[in-house]
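User: My collaborator and I are trying to settle a disagreement about how two of our proteins should look. Neither of us wants to argue from intuition anymore, so we agreed to look at predicted structures for both before our next call. Could you fold the first one, then the second, and keep them clearly separated?

Assistant: That sounds like a sensible way to settle it. I'll keep them separate. The first protein:
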Amino acid sequence: MGNKVHPIAHRLGITTEWTSKWFAKRNFHILLKQDLDVKAYLRKKLRSAGIARIEVERSGNNAVTVTIVTAKPGIVIGRGGSGVEDLKASIAKFFPPKTKYKINIQEVANPGLVAQLVVQNMIEQLERRLPFRRILKQSVEQVKKAGGQGVRVMVAGRLNGADIARTEALTWGKLPLQTLRADVDFGRGAAFTTYGAIGVKAWIYRGDIFHKKEEKTA
């Protein structure tokens, strides 16, 4: 089951959090579509900014807070904050007219331990036609230097322009997919080359998470 269940969804509510934080008594499907459209638009618009995660939080007074977790906050903010104002204006089309927007920018402390950023780096190199074996080795070394305890990277498709598609993977360290307390980050994407799309996946094991129980005082 560990190879078929999304590692982050498998641990929701235990060691991982939802990227959309709100509750709706009605029109759930409309709000969900708004979140998906905004996230897809921002990932496409800020592709070069190294987006690790996008969170959407709603409050009862018709306010929406969009948090962008990025490895390159300077690209998102722009000169004098012009980039944030531009984003506010561009995402207005996805929400009702009277919605209040707020955009927060957070910087990734250690990009080498974020699976989505590792995947984006691999995609950029694949689209530049670099050898996939070198890309796999460099990605594993990047995670090792960043302090990861285990990593698995995988590419699938017409590698190096081969006629028959295949899957290649490289693994280092340990990767406990079934341990719920294990902090396993997962990322995936696709590199679009002249030979077709090449799928990219990455799993990174960053150690275990132990929640200390609060001692009851008499």
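The second protein, kept apart from the first:
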Amino acid sequence: MTPSALIEEADLHALVDGELDPEQRRKVEDHLLQHPEDAALVEGWRRQNAALRAAFEPVALETPPLSLREAAARPPAPPAGQGPIETGAIHWGRPGAAPRPTRKLDEIRASRRRQALASTLLTLIAGAAVAAAALLFLASRPPAQSPTTRAIAATSYAARAGLTYATYILDPRPVEVEASRRGELLAWLQERVGFSRAPDLSGVGLRLLGGRVAPGVAAPAAFLVYERDDGGRVGLYFERAEALAAPAGQRGQGVSVIEWRAGGFAFVLVGALAPEAMQAAAEAAAAAVAATPAEVK
């Protein structure tokens, strides 16, 4: 039995939730490279998580009013003329307690199931709406396109970088290896992506938070996340370049995408900063990746 055959759905969920150690994560990522259907499933879960966080995290972080907190701390009072509400469990030998009719219990359970189903459907609908809004910035296309042009756009590095950005950039933990573990981060990128350099963009006001490995167009891709003092973030996506669409710059829905090639790799800088700030960051990153090892600090 191959190691890939040992990967179960629980392992895929653990990867999405960031609960795997480095060795387990590597095995699951290798499995995803060999099983595109599982990779698509994992990516769908990640997009759904990002959409749900974007939709509901601001509400979850709000401080409830004092009156609501006090009300939540008080035990509920039983209805007038009735004793404490039972949970439906069987109380053997309890004196004076008449058993609840089975039909009543079934009605309560059915009502709870209907409420849970309705809540789940509403959550999925809201998540899908937010995900659709987050992905609107991806490569805009002219009204008339040939099937070949549409296929290239769907698999271009810029589109893939935009999807990775939308999936992770709003995550409270957008990276898998933090910048404080720089040596481990660079060794991991070299092993998984084949490029062990994290450009220093402090000169343009961007601090490296860390990085992660993501599914690429044709191979594993790296995604480095940088942050400004005001909280603005950009992502630097790169993977080995193949003969796909030519490098280009795009802008839509407030997000800029700047792509270039160097050393056999495709690099894409994605972010919602002002165009001049994005251009300066892209020039700094391009200079850093093109520098010889002796020139890199």
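Some points you might bring to the call about the second protein. The CA atoms of residues 133 and 261 lie 29 Å apart. The beta strands are 177-178, 207-215, 220-227, 233-240, 249-252, 255-262, 265-271.
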